[in-house]
Amino acid sequence: EAGVTQFPSHSVIEKGQTVTLRCDPISGHDNLYWYRRVMGKEIKFLLHFVKESKQDESGMPNNRFLAERTGGTYSTLKVQPAELEDSGVYFCASSHPGGGKRYFGPGTRLTVT
Amino acid sequence: GENVEQHPSTLSVQEGDSAVIKCTYSDSASNYFPWYKQELGKGPQLIIDIRSNVGEKKDQRIAVTLNKTAKHFSLHITETQPEDSAVYFCAVGDSGNTPLVFGKGTRLSVIA
Questions:
Q1: Among the listed residues A97, A81, A110, A101, the one whose alpha carbon sits nearest the alpha carbon of residue A15
Q2: Of A36, B54, B62, B91, which shows the fewest CB atoms inside 10 Å?
Q3: Contacts of A102 in chain B (CB under 8 A)
C-alpha cells in the first residue's frame, strides 16, 4: 500500500508570491488533514477534510490560506500572498473513514524569503 | 481545547540504556494516544498507539503506559540503539477522526 505523498518536498519563494502544496492521501482514506510545524515548535493542526468537505478549518491561520479537495482524492493548500511567518514544514495526514490511525506524509518544507 | 505537555525536550542516553518520554493532557474525554517518530527529512511515523481502555501496550522494545486518572502517558524505549535517535512526538485525540493535538516533541540522542 502506497503511503501519503506530498509535493513538492521543498519550496523557496519570495514574500508576496503564491505557492501551492499538494497531498495525495492513502487510497480509500476519506479523512485528510493538514498540519504545520514552525521552527522546532509543535505540529499544529490546520484543517480536516472528510472526502471533499471541510470538516474543521479552525486551525487555518488567516484567509491567505486556501485548501481544496476536489473529488475527495488529493488536496491542495495554497498560500497567497506568502508572508515570512508562513515558513515551516507542512504535513498532510490521512486516515480510514472510521478514523483511528493517522498516517503522515514526508512534508513540504516552505521557506519564504 | 486540549493542551498537551511533553517532557523532556531533549534526552541523551547511552546505547543500551532505556529512554522515557512523558506527556500530560487536559481533556478527560480524550481516548486515543499515539506516538510518532520523526527522523531527519521525513514525516512523522506512527510507532505505537494506545486507547483508553488499556493501561499498557508493548511492541518489541517500545511500550506505552497510560494513566487516565492522572491524565498522563509515557513512551518507554528499552535497549536503545543509535537508530532510535530522532524527534518523538506524543499526540492526543479520539479514536474517531477529530484532529490530533501534539506535544512539542522530544529530541532523543542515543550515544554509541
A1: A81
A2: B54
A3: 34, 46, 100
CA–CA dist B78, B88 (Å, integer): 15
A33 → chain B, closest CA residue: B99
CB contact under 8 A, A56 and B99: yes
- Residue B87 contacts A, CB cutoff 8 Å: no
Whether residue B13 contacts residue B27, with contact meaning beta carbons closer than 8 Å, is answered with no
What is the rounded CA–CA span in Å between residue A4 and residue A32? 10
Q: All 3 cell numbers of residue A25?
A: 492521501
- Could you report the per-residue pLDDT of A58-109, keeping only the tens digit for each? 999 999 999 999 888 999 999 999 999 999 999 999 998 877 889 999 999 9
